[in-house]
Amino acid sequence: MAIRLTQTALPQLPPQVARPGYDRAALRPGILHVGVGNFHRAHMAWYLDRLFAQGRDHDWALVGAGVRPGDAAMRDRLARQDWLTTLVELDPSGLSAQVLGSMIDFVEVDPAATIAAMADPAIRIVSLTITEGGYYVDAKTDGFDAAHPDMAHDAALPDAPRSVFGMILAALRARRDAGQAPFTVLSCDNLPENGHVCARTIVGLARQSDPALADWIAATIAFPNSMVDCITPATSDRERALVRDQFGIEDDAPVVCEPFRQWVLEDNFPQGRPALQDAGAQFVADVGRHELMKLRILNGGHAAIAYASALLGHHFVHDAMADPQIRDWLVALETREIIPTLHPIEGVSYDDYLALIVDRFSNPRIGDTIPRLCLDGSNRQPKFILPTLRDRLAAGGSVVGLALELALWCRYCEGTTEDGTPIAPNDDAHAVLQRHALAARDRPAAFLDQPAIFGDLPQDENFVQAFTQALTAVKRDGVRATLVAYLG
After folding, report:
1. Secondary structure of residue 419 in the 3-state scheme
2. Is the pLDDT of residue 471 over 90?
3. pTM for this structure?
4. Are the C-beta atoms of residues 235 and 255 closer than 8 Å to each other?
5. Which of 31, 73, 266, 446 has the most crowded Cβ, counting Cβ within 10 A?
6. Gap between the Cα atoms of 306 and 68, Å rounded
């Protein structure tokens, strides 16, 4: 019989399952985290659990928070198990499990409750994992999207916000007015300069209703940049069964992840921070080059294999990586066109990092899926592919491979695989993408007529020519033959 995960059940767990070796009752809150999904629990919660196990910084425990209906469901699941999470690392050499105890509470999913929790002086860091598309960025200008309905609402009703940024503003205002020190705001999302993007959104929103507050935030609040990395698949019945059958734990919200993590942070925490460097994180003066390495090689690599693999009918990422054309296409694109856009980092070999990425993508235990990699292309392509493309064009380099990646995305947006299997919509802009993709059957450049995504790129004749040739080849010769031609 599996044991239901709770605090009192910890001593009864199988001996091979690691569990908190510290007194959770003695933990005190220090961080409020918005977006308690799988990635957060496999990453930040894991680092803090590791630090607490050293007897360190027990006043930096996590309090969860959320703003979406799904967050309330997660809160309910975690509440039943005293905020504990079973984490399984999917090492090809053998699975291992541990119970994380670094979260001690989860506020009600309600704006007033969240604002009150943020306003508590004990909270010195408010951190976010809200997806890269959750920062209200205007795709045309790459600035703050003040016209978004959420932002317009929170600007008009700052005391009754519905976005996390409106809640942060309300809490910061309360702490300022009470003469209390403000918290640091830490983004943990996959965004270039995520701290700067977060600051721009919060200051931009404040400026709509309270310019004095906006000026105070710009001058006072720290928004450190950070780079996060750990492949963490979604939890399904498969993962719950794995935890139950192999480790004897009944956990409503377990997490599985790869046996690799990286966390590089700008050391800018005026109100203090936990000693995460002792748990394996890295603090640096400038995160930029580490961040760019990860965004372009790993996230760009995911984008590279996603659409080719989907069109060829692959479901799991490790199966796609076992396909010689997919694997070689990834390595060739990275080596020829992506890595050359990166500046050197002292002590870092990009070739070694790429080899690590190939191994991580190939891990059969992760069970990561191609449909997950294909999600939300209208948000991900402008962040993970188009900046690389622009740098290559500016440097006069070849963009044949990057244009092919975009052509594969275009073909995917038509809505069927090469054998005619329908592809379920998985992008908020699906209807627009499909319309342009179908128009591209007669005129390839029609797919590029989406200013919100491509901006002024269609004005570059070299790019348009490369894209047109790539899409023509994909439709005429098929995906596999086109990949082989690029490799040759």
Report:
1. coil
2. yes
3. 0.86
4. yes
5. 31
6. 28
